[in-house]
Design goal:
151 residues, 9 strands, binds zinc ion, 1 helix, mainly beta, 34% strand, single chain
Length: 151
């Protein structure tokens, strides 16, 4: 399998193993965080996205665990990671959306909003809708369909 970390010869500092909720149980993948330049390279690989050409918001949330209630399985992740108390989409945890390619997505994005060590112990959430990058507090990106704990 293709491994980005082998190409740049550096292990990811930390990683979230993504799994879907009950309705989206085939959705899975990884989000890796690699220290690069003055920030982080975020490498995302997802399988089993619900729509062949969907666009899905992705954020780092404040909570530590992918837990919740039966009707909202990832509710305990709370709000977007936002230690600087800014507005959306300027939260530390705001990221570009993920594009489905027949259910598969791979992306790499650089951000200087955080170093990998700053997101350990938080969570990555994939939402059912794209982020509009305007609506407060979370871009109107809808239901949380998948989650991963950054470890
Ligand atoms: Zn946000």
């Amino acid at each position: 399998m293709f491994s980005f970390s082998r190409i740049i010869c550096q292990r990811p500092c930390c990683k979230a193993v993504i799994h879907g909720d009950g309705k989206f149980h085939s959705l899975h993948g990884t989000v890796s965080f690699i220290k690069a330049y003055c920030g982080t390279l975020v490498v995302t690989e997802l399988y089993g996205l619900p729509s062949p050409d969907g666009v899905y918001a992705m954020h780092i949330h404040n909570g530590a665990e992918c837990t919740g209630t039966e009707s909202a399985p990832f509710d305990n992740v709370g709000s977007h990671l936002n230690p600087d108390n800014t507005t959306h989409p300027f939260h530390m945890g705001d990221l570009p959306a993920v594009f489905s390619n027949n259910g598969y997505a791979w992306s790499a994005v650089y951000t200087d909003r955080f170093y990998p060590a700053q997101v350990i112990g938080h969570t990555v959430i994939i939402h059912i809708s794209p982020d509009d990058y305007r609506t407060q507090p979370s871009g109107n990106s809808g239901e949380k369909i998948a989650c991963g704990e950054i470890r």
